[in-house]
């Protein structure tokens, strides 16, 4: 199934180009929406007397990208507090609007609007309406920035890269999420030599992607493990060799998958909420120098898929 959405976001040249970059968007077309003259031309709309808004018609595959994600991206490309003006483009034809064709989309749109309004503490100038009419713009406006790479664009070029790099992870399976995470981490790690800084960002990426209860490191310092960068609640700071899951992973030099921490003899409970755990040793010169430890609030969270990708990830540390 393919779905339709119509977004007005100022000049449609940049807006179309922005949405074309998003994974899951299958078709884009620029045109004029919700005005009151038949078959409008660009020249007529330009007079700002026709009621039309420059609008991008999007088609997307909801199995690849959600409406909520598209709207999050939409808000990155507009100033929702600016009335009839985006960048230097002014007039009602440059107003911002979300025009829907599926009435079941409305609650998602209202939610996204409310979330966005909270950021500003003001009502937004974005109109939310059913699509009343839409006419395609002339051919030379379609894919304008593909045809004219140096053409006028009210959006910063960096936003196109941003749209390419940010996929909706909601619809990806675990393996695809890890693949994306590893791609992001590889980009962060390029040219970086500070292991601790990359450990911190890898923990942040894992946390952002999966929202596990606790994600972090213990580093080998002398004859014990000492807490390193992490995301999550306060944790114990020292763990002996062979103690707990972390110390055992170090001692046995292997990844440990613990489906139920209660059943692991000697498990160290830093947090009562933790129910299952994975610990991956990290090597330098064939020695264990640290472990990556992830805790989940649910039983049996981790499997060989987590093991495979987390082992791959820690090998990317310098
Ligand atoms: N449960 C770990 C201790 C570290 S916390 O989970 C953050 C263990 O048994 O080694």
Written account of the structure:
This protein is α+β, with helices and mostly antiparallel strands and 318 residues long. It folds into 2 domains: 3-170, Peptide methionine sulphoxide reductase MsrA (Peptide Methionine Sulfoxide Reductase, Chain A, 2-Layer Sandwich), CATH 3.30.1060.10; 174-315, 2-Layer Sandwich (Beta-Lactamase). Helices cover 33% and strands 25% of the residues. It has helices spanning 12-20, 42-46, 67-76, 106-120, 144-147, 158-165, 174-189, 195-210, 244-252, 304-315; strands spanning 3-9, 25-33, 53-60, 85-86, 89-90, 96-100, 127-130, 134-136, 214-221, 224-231, 238-240, 256-258, 276-284, 287-296. A 6-stranded mixed beta sheet has the order 7-6-1-3-2-8, covered by helices on one side. Strands 11-10-9-14-13-12 form a 6-stranded antiparallel beta sheet, sandwiched between helices. A hairpin with a 2-residue loop joins strand 13 and strand 14. Helix 7 (174-189) runs antiparallel to helix 8 (195-210) and helix 7 runs parallel beside helix 10. The protein is elongated and about 80 Å long. The model has no long low-confidence stretch (mean pLDDT 95). Methionine sulfoxide is lined by residues 214, 235-236, 239, 244-246, 267-268, 270, 274, 277, 293, 295.
Strand tally, please? 14
Radius of gyration, Cα only, in angstroms?
Answer: 25 Å
Would you identify the CATH H-level superfamily of the largest domain?
Peptide methionine sulphoxide reductase MsrA
Q: Name the bound molecules.
A: methionine sulfoxide
CATH class annotation of the largest domain: Alpha Beta
CATH architecture of the largest domain: 2-Layer Sandwich
Largest sheet features: 6 strands, mixed
Looking across the biggest beta sheet, what order are the strands in? Answer: 7-6-1-3-2-8
Tally the structural domains.
2
Per CATH, what is the topology of the largest domain?
Answer: Peptide Methionine Sulfoxide Reductase, Chain A
Q: Proportion of β residues?
A: 25-35%
Principal-axis shape: elongated
């Amino acid at each position: 199934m393919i779905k339709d959405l119509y977004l007005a976001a100022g000049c449609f040249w940049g807006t179309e180009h922005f949405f074309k970059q998003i994974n899951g968007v299958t078709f884009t077309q620029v045109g004029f929406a919700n005005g009151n003259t038949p078959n409008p031309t660009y020249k007529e709309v330009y007079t700002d007397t026709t009621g039309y808004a420059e609008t991008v018609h999007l088609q997307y595959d909801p199995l690849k990208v959600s409406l909520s994600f598209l709207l999050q991206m939409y808000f990155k490309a507009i100033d929702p507090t600016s009335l009839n003006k985006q960048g230097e483009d002014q007039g009602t034809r440059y107003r911002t609007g979300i025009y829907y064709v599926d009435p079941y989309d409305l609650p998602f749109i209202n939610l996204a609007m409310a979330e966005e309004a909270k950021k500003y503490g003001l009502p937004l100038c974005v109109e939310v309406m059913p699509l009343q009419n839409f006419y395609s713009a002339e051919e030379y406006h379609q894919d304008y920035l593909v045809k004219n790479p140096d053409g006028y664009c009210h959006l910063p070029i960096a936003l196109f890269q941003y749209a390419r790099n940010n996929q909706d992870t909601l619809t990806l399976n675990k393996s695809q999420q890890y693949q994306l995470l590893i791609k992001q981490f590889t980009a962060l790690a390029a040219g970086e030599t500070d292991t601790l800084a990359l450990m911190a960002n890898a923990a942040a990426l894992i946390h952002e992607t999966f929202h596990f209860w606790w994600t972090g490191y213990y580093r080998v310092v002398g004859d014990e493990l000492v807490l390193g960068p992490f995301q999550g609640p306060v944790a114990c700071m020292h763990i002996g060799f062979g103690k707990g899951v972390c110390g055992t992973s170090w001692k046995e030099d292997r990844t440990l998958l613990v489906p139920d921490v209660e059943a692991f003899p000697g498990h160290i409970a830093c947090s009562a909420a933790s129910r299952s755990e994975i610990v991956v040793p990290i090597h330098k010169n064939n020695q264990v120098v640290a472990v990556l430890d992830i805790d989940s609030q649910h039983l049996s969270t981790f499997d060989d898929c987590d093991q495979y990708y987390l082992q791959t990830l820690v090998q990317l540390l310098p």
